[in-house]
Amino acid sequence: MLPRPSFRQLLLAAFMLVALLLGGVALRGQLALEALLDKARDDAGRTLALNGHAERLDELALAMERAARQFLVLGDTALRQRFRRSADDAEIHLRALAEAGVAPDAAADWRSQRRAVERLLADGPDPSRDTAVVQAFGEIVELQARLTERLRAQTEARNRALQDEIEAVRLALGRQWAGAGVLGLVLALGLAVGLARPLRRVEQAIVALGENRLDERIEIPGPSDVRQIGRRLDWLRLRLAGQDADKARFLRHVSHELKTPLAALREGVALLQDGVAGPLSADQREVARILADNTAALQRRIEDLLSFNATAFAAERLVRRPVALAPLLHELVAEQQLQWRAKGLQVVVGGEQATADVDAALLRTAVANLLANAIRFSPPAAENGGGAGRGATIRLDLARAGDGVTITVSDEGPGVADADRARIFEPFYRGALQPEPAPGTLPGTGIGLSIVAEAVAAHGGRIELLHDGPLPGACFRLHLPHALTD
Question: From CA 76, how far away is CA 74, in angstroms rounded?
Answer without folding.
Answer: 5
